[in-house]
């Protein structure tokens, strides 16, 4: 390990030290869940929400973790990154569909081959 790494490691454990994150309780008494906003207004901004949101018990608890909305070039960069991720996710979905199709085609072919082999064995 080089000197630099040692310094880096050391500085992570001493010094300021982030305050322990306290558990945020939602209005219905459950520990709030951390989530991330993906909206145009607040890309990547983290917030607390309730796991009962949009369930029959529908809890609307909401609290931002990150203070201040993103703005300026950072916001543009975040939106670009978000769109990039979405595009890649779509591509991955497409590829997964293709793989599933190839797999089922292959399985059909394999069955077909098995039929042929069985046919030969019966000869
Ligand atoms: Zn709740």
Written account of the structure:
This protein has 123 residues and is mainly alpha-helical. It folds into two domains: 48 residues, no CATH class; 53 residues. Helix content is 50%, strand content 9%. The chain contains two helices and three strands. Strands 1-2-3 form a three-stranded antiparallel beta sheet, with no helix packed on it. The longest helix is centred in the last third of the chain and has 51 residues. It is elongated. 4% of the residues are buried. Zinc ion binds next to loops. The site of zinc ion has 8 residues, from loops.
Write the layout of secondary structure elements.
Elements: H1 3-13, E1 33-36, E2 46-49, E3 62-64, H2 72-122
Antiparallel strand pairs: 1-2, 2-3
Zinc ion (ZN) binds at residues 26-28, 30, 50, 52, 59, 61.
The amount of helix comes to: 40-55%
Mean residue pLDDT: 85
C-alpha Rg, in Å?
Answer: 26 Å
The tally of strands reads: 3
Distinct bound molecules: zinc ion
Spatial separation of the terminal alpha carbons: 70 Å
The outline comes out as: elongated
Q: What is the count of structural domains? A: 2
What's the SSE pattern? HEEEH
InterPro entries: DUF7900, Znf_GRF
GO molecular function: zinc ion binding
Domain GRF-type: 26-68
Protein name: GRF-type domain-containing protein
Explain briefly what this protein structure is:
This protein is mainly alpha-helical. It contains 2 helices and 3 strands; from the N terminus they run αβββα. The longest helix has 51 residues, at 72-122.
């Amino acid at each position: 390990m080089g000197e630099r790494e040692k310094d880096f490691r050391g500085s992570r454990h001493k010094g300021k030290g982030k305050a322990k994150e306290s558990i945020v309780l939602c209005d219905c008494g459950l520990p709030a869940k951390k989530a991330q906003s993906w909206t145009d207004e607040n890309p990547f901004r983290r917030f607390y929400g309730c796991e009962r949101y949009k369930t029959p018990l529908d809890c609307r608890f909401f609290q931002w973790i990150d203070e201040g909305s993103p703005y300026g070039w950072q916001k543009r960069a975040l939106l670009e990154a978000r769109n990039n991720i979405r595009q890649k996710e779509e591509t991955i979905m497409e590829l997964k569909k293709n793989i599933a199709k190839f797999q089922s085609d292959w399985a059909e072919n394999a069955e077909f081959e098995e039929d042929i082999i069985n046919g030969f064995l019966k000869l």
